[in-house]
Fold these 4 entries.
Entry 1:
Amino acid sequence: NLVVTISRENVLYLDRKVITNKELKAALLAAHKNKIPVLIMADQYVSLGRVVEVWDMARDLGVEQVNIATNRE
């Protein structure tokens, strides 16, 4: 899985490294080309809009399997 984490502050992480939207798009495009599922891990206090933004970006780039999980810690 390609794991995209969204922190409480709405910051995006990929493999524990802060990334920009442009870097995220490149990673999602690579996931699509390699048929890798995407997991969006979001803090429970992240705005739903931010999660949907990442979800839509993945779907728009052709990722077929996108899952969401929340971190309740």
Entry 2:
Amino acid sequence: MKGFVEDPDFLLGTGTAVELYHGWAERMPIVDYHCHIDPKDIWEDRHFEDLSQVWLRGDHYKWRLMRSNGVPEEFITGERTGREKFQKFAEMLPRAIGNPMYHWCHLELKNYFGYTGVLNGETAQRVWDLCNEKLRSDPAMSVRGMICGSNVAMVGTTDDPCSDLAWHEKLSADGSFAPKVLPSFRPDPAVNLHKAGFADYLRKLEETVGREISTVEDVRQALSVRIAFFDAHGCRSADHGLDYVMFRPASDMAATAALRRAGGGEPLTREEAEGYQTALLLHCAREYARLGWVMQLHFSCMRNPNTKILKTLGPDTGFDCMAVTDSCSATYRLLDTLEQEASLPRTVLYSLNPADNAWIDTLLGAFQSPEIPGKIQHGSAWWFNDHKAGMTEHLTSLANLGVLGNFIGMLTDSRSLLSYARHEYFRRVLCDLLGRWVENGEYPRDMETLGGLVQDICCHNAKRYFNL
């Protein structure tokens, strides 16, 4: 019987997989090109008072599991003590058999705190004491220490267009911190005019750029100003969170009418909203292409379906879910329009619905170019798909229908510093898959070639792709 996470060969089912992981993947730097870590915490080198602050703070994955086990909200985002919250989590965890969180949690405890036992209700106090002692006594358990200790070469944060990027400026000027911390442009509040708070955001954007916004062209110009500002601060990438990919070209007059109706709090038809969104998405993509940025599109997510909870806890608290959308046709028309103009940026497509894997992987091949291998990417198995089966399905589909060797690899998409353990998890899954193919006779046992592919997928491809 194979060992659990304390086994060096955890998840590695063949001798080839073991050799690939330990010989080629394990020590590669991490390029975490999309995450939600606060750059202020990095600049201030935050230290954590107790385990709950680094374990549960902002980790929606863990919150969801606790709720699914009937844990009251007071033990999740409420006023209970960190020790009480951790106890409830530990009591729940053994029931999450088959969930990647069970593996991730034990990898986090092993990698950051040296604990190789299991976490459950009975061991919770011992784990709490051990981890808190390390947080108090080990200087490397600060935010910067964890990033450097995880061998992270680059952190790509997610930033509002109105941000002054002050923390990024400080980090850029700090020669003592080796990892790059680069902003990513996230213009969703200005693009998604059907979302709550749109009118207030326009006022904020007006204040930031120092000009009135009353037409869609005004929004374009304001975003161009902010894109230039981000570019001057080292930005390499933009990210759009879309319910679905839309493509409905509209006149500036129609887009402006939709803008004004939304700004006045009036309801919009789907057609009106999509006309405005398409105008802004096209404009942003053209700017990204001009500057050599990467455009990331995340879609097929159903945001905040629980209205009661949205009213009490607000958005982004762990209640989103997978959506079934038809984004294929719109994505093709978006890429085709930009390609005809020679304005198609490097683009990463992420669908939260794994049923979209095949069409994404075939669409990639229709819009590649000599600019860079894998110019159009199928983003890593994301959010509800970053478990062993989801990663394997994603990698297999990409290999079957595209060129796996050009893949830019894993990201955390997380607010938790401990989530760097997910890169190890991905690398083990990747090496296990390749190892099985080799030992099944489906690929030659050429370790130099295989090792080079693994290192490219783990690190080098992303460095090239994001011009690092």
Entry 3:
Amino acid sequence: RNTNMSIDRRKFLGLSAGGIAVATLPACSSEDPEVSIDDSLPVSAFGADSTAEEVTAGMDLSGRTALVTGCNSGLGFETMRVLALRGAHVIGTGRTLEKAEIACASVDGETTPMALELADFQSAVDCAAAVRALGRGLDMLICNAGINTFGELELVNGVEKQFAVNHLGHFILINQLRQPVMAAPQGRFVMLSSRAHRRADKGIEFDNLDGSQHYSPWNAYGVSKLANALCARVLAQQIEHTDATANSVHPGVINTGLPKYLPGWQQWAMNNFGWLFLKSIPEGAATSCYVATSPDLVGVRGFYFADCNVSEKKSEFMDDDAMAAKLWEVSEELTRDYLPVTRKA
């Protein structure tokens, strides 16, 4: 990896007028973007500049099955492409079957398209039923799909839309597909979080899930990403007696569809100076693919990964087991009609 280039980029970012502009972007932070690696756990040879192909180089995933939500664009498409390239059978979901079919037909390897509209909780139930009907284990469940609604408050089933889609839709899916993942020799749940979880500066405000007390779109996005990580933390505790694992990942700041939601001057900064700090899509998909496939991570569960390593650079709420437990309980209450009977109990 060209680490000198990464250092030079950060120096230039800090010294330039462009750096002043991009440091104010809501998606980013003026803090040093490098992760703080927890070296008490396996430390990989990969980092911020590694790509999904590089972290899976030499792997033969033949006979394994992965499900990737949001396969029709960006990180989801690249994750599906690389896993299929390495021999995995990839179930790719899109908001419509047509979108999933187009994406799956665009990659080499064995793929199965399925529809999954996370804003429609019944869709998550139906998608899981279709996966179970395949009659095979699920080695990797990669909850990649997500939305950014940086505008007016919107509600889905009575809660803020980003929380409903990014967290609750996936919460239903992982509970519905728990048994197929457990049936795999070493099943892995991978939840896409984000360093934006630090925007949830009060953690999960359970009395404000509908935004009725106050609403900031960036804070709400941060809450949904914190929820993704806490969900993985609780799930990891629940399955610690098994061979399965659950972890969350920060893919990096990537220029996908995000800029269209920003003010004009911030879009200009992103377009003109984004190369200083943005990851490419192949780089952004690397951590998900690493956590889903690396043989070094057998038995490693309940952690937050960034740049292909366990990161200690996170908010205090990421280690708040009481908040995580309450989130799980509240999530069960909000989705009770869509959970398997065993999970309702």
Entry 4:
Amino acid sequence: MLGVIFSFFSSEVEKRRTIKKCGLLSIILGLIVGVYWILRVIKDNVFFKIVGPSYQPVAKILSLLIMIPLIFLYSHLVDKAPRHRMFYSLATFYGCGMLLFSYLLNHPIIGLSNTQASPDRIVGWLLYFFVESFGSLMVALFWSFTSDISTPQSAQQGYPIVALGAQVGAFACTLLLRNSVRTYGAPYVILVASFLTFLIIGFVKTFIFIEPDAKDIKVTKLKTKYKKRTGFFEGLRLMMQNPYLFGIFIIVLFYGVINSILDFQFKLLANAAFVDHKAFGAYLFDAAIWINGLAVLAIIFGVNNITKRLGITTSLIFLPVLIGAAVIVLGLRADIAISFWIVVLCKAINYALNQPTKEQLYIPTSTDAKYKSKAWIDVFGSRGAKSVGSFINIWQAFCGPMMFVFIS
């Protein structure tokens, strides 16, 4: 990986332009993913403590339903608005939303000071849905924007750099705020996340200023390719009619189901071990630091060479094999330390190898596929998979263990 980066600077002008473009994109994605990792840790921390861990599978299922009107709005906006303005609008909305949640969680009655967990505490539910939508829409918009301005050759050169920026951003944000959540609590951490979200707008503006062609491409494609078919279900129709796109959906679905089960078992064990919400949050931040730290190291030391040497198919098969082994191990011994490292390793490999590889699959597709079908795959494929996994978790809670995963 480092050799690839250094070769860019000693190469021709076109490659230097690629490294500059991908460098800016990596900063933008690093901020998006960094903010998302902050929020996802806080989301589980808050929900487990003020709503209750047994309701998390229900929240995952409901989040799929909540995403339906949001993806409808997203599909409408990508027909009307240039992509960079979509970034401005979404970042502003989420940044302001974080300011509001920071205030609410600091409230003595409805916030974290009230340690009585109850499903009636709506702030925990709203924060959960808010964070889930951020992770789906902001990341999907970024990768659609990036694949739209990339060629297969530039993607092979630049996507590892962008993926590295994402993991560096996630690692840096979780590392820097780990002690803050233990000392000051979730409201302060969400306040910092709000500032970083507004910072995304500035970097997107910088990217458009340096790469004005990106702005022109968006407007042209909107005018020429979105006239015939529009609507909420257009992305679903394209996915169901195209075996290639449906195959991407299956990849997302498989990982999401198993990961949802493993992740829930890990957090149940952690929640039982750490009663105080600050200690629980710090432990979840520890997991996030290890996940993203290992992902950064994997990218730096060339995990992307698996894709180059063995092909995309082999790269995509590697993670399911690893997850299958993890399920068996956790089924044999449900221990918090074992669960911690299983989740860390599986997620690190996913972010370092599986995600960048999967995103390259969209490059040869149409603009409709990149924006509309991808939104359905990323949002409903991911959320649908988590819902299936949540049904299994609910079944385990009330009817006993299923498959190989259980808490002894």
